[in-house]
């Protein structure tokens, strides 16, 4: 397969080593996030007293100006101010605009304020005319905040007021239930949807359920849903079929997945690059380079051009097999073809350098990545930080860690876990626990690795009672206890 990639399918290209020198700009890693001057602050809002004047017999252009103020305030994200203005206008007999209120509901949910979103809907129900779009926005917001019961109450309220939920309403609820592992409830909601007179399941409805069923019930149960979907006269799209392909590969049904891809034209769909990428990734993960070669050739024959993900899959497999030079060569080929690598593309290369003990090259490659316009994500940095810590360079790792927020790449739980263990192992027990405190203050929840690392560190230092206490509490108010013991 490697021979095909580098010799037959693609033109010969020189090795990339000469191009890996970072530019002078990339060596500094200085990224400053600047906000453009807020010209909107220069706009003078209307005197709030003027909103209280009665709208009766007011000129049309005055009422129009009021609407402009409300729309502008909502558009620039001043949701509290918009709600205040809206409440002021209610006192003068203003009928709230449903489109504005829907935007305001979405805005409050984006700022995680469900109480005010609900308040906007109450204003709309009392003084205006809500529609299904407004209710869908409210239901969607509750679902995103994991308030499923509240979303269900809105659905019932919506029905009681004579509004018929549409497929979007049900898809929001079904999708939310599936995301939270409640497939049984989602399937009951599907049954309820099928009983509706004015609404029917859509391709999206079944695709959501098929994806969830693959994870919880397996591919065979998912195929039953596909058959039901077809029996209702719904034509699956490539998103649906790709979910099936992904499910087959997940259960190591490679032959069936291969045949399924080949059968798609007879089903009225042509495999797309995502279909081939799913299958290629599964084949190469199992080391089946010859089958991968055949698939790539079929892909070209079908007129399906590889994309960034295709190249990233190939490069990841080459790195996994220790063929780093060929992976770098493939990166050069990819860029010569006008494709722009992303963080997913670079990560296996950085990981390969780190695993090979070449931290210096990994850092240079990170510079090269930045100089080519691709800002590293936290996964890239975590790889570098982990290697620094393993090499006993915890202080250098901390210097990088402290700059992550400045460059717009905030640390995640894995970052904290890595640094916490390194600091503890280097005698910085109190500093390690301060990091855990900082992590919690920033709203990053500790995971199993966090707890296991702390328990392990405590045991190694002879603090077995504290470790047992932490083990039994597992997420209680343990932090203050261990700060006290230190």
Automatic annotation (TrEMBL):
Q: Where are the PPR repeats?
A: 131-165, 166-196, 202-236, 237-271, 272-306, 307-341, 342-376, 377-411, 412-446, 447-481
Name this protein carries in UniProt: Pentatricopeptide repeat-containing protein
Protein family according to the UniProt entry: Belongs to the PPR family. P subfamily.
Q: Which organism is it from?
A: Anisodus acutangulus
Superkingdom as given in the UniProt entry: Eukaryota
Q: Which Pfam families match?
A: PPR_1, PPR_2, PPR_3
Identify the keywords attached in UniProt to this record, alphabetized.
Answer: Repeat
